[in-house]
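note to self: the first set is below, dont mix up w the second
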Amino acid sequence: MARDNDLEASYAMANLAIKWRSEIHPGSLTTTDFSTANSQGVWRFAGYAKNGWPIMLVRTSLYDPSCYSTEEYVRYIAYMMETNVKRVGSSNPNGQKHFIIFDMLGMQYNTDLAKLRQLIRIANDYNPERLGIAMVINASTLFWGLWKIMTAWMDPATSEKVKVFTTDNVDFLEEHVGLEHVCTDLGGKREEDWPPP
């Protein structure tokens, strides 16, 4: 149960998630619903972790939030999370969880806090217990500044699933993913980048 087994808080969160899903319809979205955001190629499906969790790779250097609205960003993230969960069957003994790799190398200083807040809200409130691991690699000084803001918006159980690396992330990737599925620029052996959806 979400929210530290607090039944009342879990019930309130479930009601919010149902309301959000009825407004956004994440299962009905297509890439045409967020074509500007998708054209940047920031979020990509990137194979599977060793435990069967589907991986999403986030290339933050490609992110330019000024090109589209917060509403389009919400549709983009809703689509990615909904589609990613569908990539793993309900029979996976490790559950239907996300493994997200945020590559912070080259991240720009034009971060949109409204969009960042929506990312946290979608992951934390509308997809509770779906995050398995969020791995942040190449974390910069900018990231640490944002992290202080982000953790104030997160449930503590969610923030504990975030693993941050400034360097030396290869052993973690090998243990959880396998370097044959990790792009060479991230320390792996895969020569081609994972394509955007």
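second set (the one i keep forgetting abt)
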Amino acid sequence: MRISAATALVATFGLTSASPASWLSSSSSTSVTVNDALKVPGDNPLEFCDADRSSDTITIDNVDLSPNPPKPGSELLIKASGTVLETIEDGAYVKLVVKYGLIRLISTTADFCEQLGNVDLKCPLEKGPLTVLKSVEIPKEVPPGTYHVNAEVFNANDEPITCLTATVKFGGRATGVESVEL
């Protein structure tokens, strides 16, 4: 199963806001909701699933999305850095859930190592510092609404690699009023 380059980045560094490009856009304004206590460092809408990440085998130092929030019909540049604390071998997997409001669009378990190919990486993912730079095209058409993404990544022994979430809202009316001089 091929998810997308953005999803592979989500799995690697929790780039959940950059999940499958086929739904990450709209023709209207975009807004993002983030919980500051769990926020992933950098310019992104990502959150860690839990404040206690002591058992994770990847630490995430920074994730930047440009533009943030993503814009319809444009290119999304993703820069991520972190550290792999233990080598990640074949057999690692990602549980990905994407919801549109309350409707589950995607609920799948995918081969993590296969998804790494989307960001030009492969297993084994060796211990040490890791930087990812990837560009993803954001399509113009996506139904306006609120999307919730959850990505839990585990190694072959079911130990957590990382877990991230994001909520991205596409569409809606402008909240401000423009003034016009007469």
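remember for set 2: The domain at 5-170 is CATH 2.70.220.10 (Ganglioside M2 Activator Protein; Chain: A,).
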